[in-house]
Each structure stands twice: as C-alpha cells, then as structure tokens.
Amino acid sequence: MDLLCIGLSHVTAPVETRETVAFAPGEARSVLADLEDVAPEAVLVSTCNRTELYARTAPGSLSTIVDRLDHAKGTRVFAYDALTYRHSGRDAARHLMRVACGLDSMVLGEDQILGQVEEGFELACAAGRVDAVLTRLFGTAIHLGGKMRAETDIGRGSVSVGSVAVGLAKKIFGSLDGKSALVVGAGEMGTLAARHLADAGVASLAVANRTVAKAEALAAAVSGRGLPLCGVPAELPGVDIIVAAIGGGAPLLNRTTIRPALKARGYRPLLVLDISVPRSVAPEVNRLENVFLQDIDALRKVIDGNLARRKKAARTVAEECDAAAERFIEWTRRLAVDPTLRELRDLLGDVAERELARTLRKLPAEHHADVEKLTLSLVNKILHTPTTRLREGAAKGNGVVGPLAALREVFGLEEDHEHPDRDTK
Amino acid sequence: MFSVDRLRGEGFPTRRGAVSIESSTMETCLQSQATFLPMLYLLAATAYGVAFFHEQDVGISRRAATPLLGFALVMHATYLVMIALHTGHAPFTSVWEFLASLGFSIASCYLLLEVLTKTKSTGVIVLPLVTLLMGLSSAFVIHDAEVPEILASPWFAVHAGTMVLGFAAFALAFTFGVLWTLLYRNIKASRFGIVYERLPPLATLFKMQRRALLIGWLSLTASIAVGYVWSSDALPGFQQDPKAIVTMAIWAVYGVGLGIRYLGRRRGTWLTYFSLAGFLLLIGGLLAAVALFPSRHAFS
C-alpha cells in the first residue's frame, strides 16, 4: 500500500478553479465512501485555498481515484496535471506537515489551516475511513503544527491590516473590553477593519459613511450603528479607536476637530488608524497628547516586520517537517514487518506453551516457575536479533521483502492458520 | 536613609543586641542568609530575563520566575526578622540595613503589582536593581554595630518602615513611568521594535505606575504623620529640619499628581510627569539636604 496525496491549492490553481472543487462536509463524506474499494484509508482536506486527498492506496489506483474525485464534482480538474500536484510516500507526508505548519499557506504561518486539517481528519474518523497509518500521519502533522506555532515565530505577529490594527489597539488599551470604535468608510478596507474590531470584542462599534445606507448595511452586519459622515465629530468624545478608511478631499480629522474632543474625554488615549489613500487624518494630530495616529505605511511596516520574522522561522519549520516526514516513513516501514514478526512470535509462543505443558506434567510443582521463566527467556532471546535487524532494516529502507519472505517460508507462517495442530506430533 | 553617626555624637544613649539568642550562631545564620539572598535574587532576575528576551520561551524560566521571587522574598523576610531579633531594633539603622529593607520593599511591591496586573515583563528591569541593592547590603552590613537607644523605639520602626516602603513604591512608579514614556514615544513614532514587542500594554504600565504611586504616597503620609507625632518628644525642633521639609515637598508633588488624576479625573501623561519629577526631587532633594545642611534627623 502506498501513501498518496492528490490535490490543488492557491499555488497551482486560480480561485475560480479552486471553488469548483471545494467539498462541503456532506460531499466529502460521500466521496470518501465512494473511494473505499481503492483506498482503505482516506482523508479529504478542503478549504477555500486548497482541496487535497490523502489516501493509503493499492499501487495503480491513482487514475481511479482521480476519476472519482472529478466525477464527484462534475469536473475534469483533478485529471489536469497543470492544475494539480501528486505526491507519494515521504513527499506526501512532508506535504501534509508543511500544510499543517502553514508553510504552504497563502499567508505564511496562518493558523486557520491547522484547524481545517483537524476538521478534515475528524470527518474521516467519523466516517470510519482512517486506520493506523493516516491516524499516525495526521496526529503527527497536527501535533507538529501546534508545536511549531508555540515554539517558533512562524505564526507570531499580525500580517493583515485588520489584525495589526487590533494588535495596536491592544498594545495601547490592554484589552478591547469596554472600548468603542468608529470606522469611517464602508468600502472594502472599512468593512475588513469593522469585522476585525467586532471579532476582537469592542463594546460598541459605529460606522460612518458618505452614503448612510452603506454605513447602516455594514453596521448591521457587525452589530453596530450607522451614521452619516457629518456625525463623526459628535462621536469623537466617546470613541477610543477611529479607523479612517475613506479617501478624497480635505482631511476629515485634524487638530481642531480632535482637540475639543480630547478635553471632553479627560485625555483618555485615542488610537487613530488612517488607512485611506490619500490620507484623511492630518498628520499633526499625532502631536496631541495621548493621541496615537498611525497611517497605512506604519501598519505596513509592522506587517513587513512580522512577515520577515515568519520567513526566518520558516527554515527551521521546514527542517522539522522533513524530519517528521522521515520519522513517519520509518514508522510505516517498521509497520510492514510487524505482522510477520507478530506471527513468528505467536508461532514460537504456541510451540513453547505446548512443550511446556508436556514437560511440566513430569516435573515437581516447585520447579514449574523456573522452567516457565527459562522457556519465556529462550523465546525472547531467539526472537530478539531477527526482530531488531528486520525493524532496523525496514526503517532504513534496506529492502526487507526478501528476508521477510524467507522467514515466512522457513517457519511456514503461511500455513499457520491452515494447520493449527502442526506441532502436536 | 537613616544614619546613626550624628546621633552617636550627640549624647544619645546607645545599645547593642537586645535578645539573648546564642549570638555566634545567629551571626553565622545572618551571614549565610546575607550571602544567599543576592544569589537568589540573581537567579530570579535571570529567569525574568530569559522569559523577557526569548519570546518563544514557554517553559521553565517563565514558570519559575515568580515562584523564585516569592521564595527569595520569604527568605528575605526571615533575614530581616532575624536582624531585628538579633539587634533588638528594626533593620533600618545603617545604610546597609536600609538597602536590604529597600530591596525587600521594592521586590514585595513589584510582586504585588505583578500578581494584580498579571504582567511579568517588567521584572527584568526591577529584579537586577533589587539584586544590586541586596548585594551591596550583604557585602558591607555589620549586624552587631552600636545604635542609639532612640532607634529601638517601635515608633522608629513604623516611621522608617513606612518611609522605606514609600521610597520603594516611588522607585517602582519611576521605573514604570520611564517604561511607559519609552513605549508611548515608540508608538507615537511608529517604531515597532523590541520595546513595542516585549513591554506590556501602555494601559497596564500606567495602571502599575498609578498603583505604585498610591502605595508610595499613602506610606509616605503614614510615615510623616508618625514622624511628626513621635519627633515632638524625641527630636524637638524637627519640623525645621531640611530633610523634613524636602520630604514634605516630595509628598506634596506626588499628592498634586494623584489629586489631578483622581479628583480632576485627568488621564494622559500628567501623572507620569509627576511621577518622574517626584522621584527626581526625592533623590536630588534628599542628597542635597544631606550634603548641604547639617541635620539632627540624620538621613544620608
């Protein structure tokens, strides 16, 4: 059985292709069931940026799997080499490790993917489509993903404007509990900022826009209040965070508009994030006491710094992924010799038990324990060297098929179940 | 701090250790405690340092820092009690005893604020200072020096003890004020380096500073009150003493700062400026008073 990974991601396919092959949970369950005859174990990881199938398959079943995946989505995407990638064995394991650690993500080190890998694995578990190999593979990958995020810089620091804004606010206020925010502008940037602030837990959120209807629509989506642009000055004494994401014309806020509000608010800190281009907050606002003005370049600087740290950490994480994949492959190779070793141990155990029973009948009871101990020790010592050598050989990939076949032949392991009373004579 | 040199020369009766515990055994215990404590603080400071500089460190140093400091404080408290038992007076009668008590007060206040705000990252600044104070004290302290009998008074223990606690809290407020200013300026200038990354949020530093100031000001108030009541009998004419006047000025500066914050409800940079100015006045004023004016109330 081979380990196989087939899939596509933002690296190989555009969004319009990725969205045609994204599997909803119900579809994923269905396709996993459909693959049961060609893949004893299978896990499907499907997100907006990637769709990947990890499977333990019989050699030569790749084309069948590709056909069934395409059939499930009514496309020919998986059959199209230029849009997909296929990995097997160690490469497949390494790919999953890298995916779980965020090395293969659109935003390096992002942590959503780890949860999505976990969801894919849990879905396959619930569908009864995983066994020892994929459990081990996904368990290792999920553990490694968490460990790398905790111990390296791979997931540290914000790398989007919205999360940097929230990070800055937390650096000033400590917590966003009880804080109120005002987002000026209901365009793309304003919407992203409003969503981040709402997710971060600000107590109240207001959205102001030239078109009040747009402000109200966005406000409704984030459980806030919508207001016209002319309502901004009246809001200033009560807000702690202002995100200006509205371009054009003269500055919306300047010293004259903010200074009276500062006095009214008892000089509590005020964070002003101006992410509009051209800027809509006059730079001299930053000179006011306890007012922190940051423009898009400042936020970009934070993002670049954090990305640089993540890139530096990526080298270490990649090495860890390689090592984890290598350990997994060694484990699977050892797994290949285990059934034979188990059968051999059972065989010798049976022989020892029968001979022991025969001998003990002739011996006084006080010697039974010693003889039992001796027999067990003999069996273990006889098995020790072949067990160790076969496992080591398998782990190193030294080709143990021949020795295993010889072992089975010499001890007649194939005949074990067919001739249960072989040793009774 | 208090010095007994002047009092010794002015006819105050003196005394040695008042408790009849086996003296040489106690002396040995005190000496080993004095050697052990700076090392313990150094260990705690190292743990705080490792936790501060290694962002990924989620292991032993981060977990060990606070318990190590707690253990050092228990040992330190034992050491101060042993000094009091051995000498029969509170451990504030020499520069070196004063440093040991100041170190203890700073570390205790810091631990209290750390627990209240759940913030460890300022320990890297505070603990080396405590280690230095304790190291100096241990190197030079003499436990059986003669002291004037007046300093064995319980009033002296309360007066000097609250004063030391006040100074310790003001030193902490100054430290947090400097860190707050550093972070404030870094954010204003959009500098997002190690200061931005590792220091606690501005609001937390401000809260730590405010609480330290409050502890310091209340302690100083208590110390001044006890000092005035006690000195009317023990040290007549004390009110005109330059050191007492400087102390009152320090008390007033901090009081105005806290008044503006709490009564005027004014936030912002004001309190930090008062905190920084108050501490500079404390150091400069007391040093000037000691150097320039003769005093029977012998701070040095």
Features:
heterodimer, A: 425 residues, alpha/beta, Beta Polymerase, domain 2, 3 domains, 54% helix, disordered C terminus, B: 300 residues, mainly alpha, Four Helix Bundle (Hemerythrin (Met), subunit A), 2 domains, two-stranded antiparallel ribbon, disordered N terminus
- Give the termini distance of chain B in whole angstroms: 6 Å
CATH class of the largest domain in chain A: Alpha Beta
CATH class of the largest domain in chain B: Mainly Alpha
For this structure, the CATH topology of the largest domain in chain A is: Beta Polymerase, domain 2
Rg of Cα set of chain B: 20 Å
Q: Count the helices of chain B. How many?
A: 10
Number of domains of chain A: 3
Low-confidence stretches of chain B: 1-11, 17-21
Quick one: biggest sheet of chain B?
Answer: 2 strands, antiparallel
CATH homologous superfamily of the largest domain in chain A, by name? Glutamyl-tRNA reductase, N-terminal domain
Oligomer: heterodimer
Strand order of the largest sheet of chain A: 7-6-5-8-9-10
Write the layout of secondary structure elements.
The complex is a heterodimer of chains A (425) and B (300).
Chain A: E1 2-9, H1 15-20, H2 25-34, E2 41-46, E3 50-57, H3 62-73, E4 85-88, H4 89-100, H5 112-126, H6 132-151, H7 161-173, E5 180-184, H8 188-200, E6 204-209, H9 212-221, E7 225-228, H10 232-235, E8 241-244, H11 255-264, E9 270-274, E10 291-295, H12 296-360, H13 368-396, H14 401-411
Parallel strand pairs in A: 5-6, 5-8, 6-7, 8-9, 9-10
Antiparallel strand pairs in A: 1-3, 1-4, 2-3
Helix pairs in contact in A: 4-6, 4-12, 5-6, 6-12, 7-8, 12-13
Chain B: H1 5-8, E1 14-15, H2 23-53, H3 60-87, H4 95-117, H5 123-140, E2 147-148, H6 154-188, H7 194-198, H8 202-234, H9 242-262, H10 270-292
Antiparallel strand pairs in B: 1-2
Helix pairs in contact in B: 2-3, 2-5, 3-4, 4-5, 4-6, 4-8, 6-8, 6-10, 8-9, 9-10
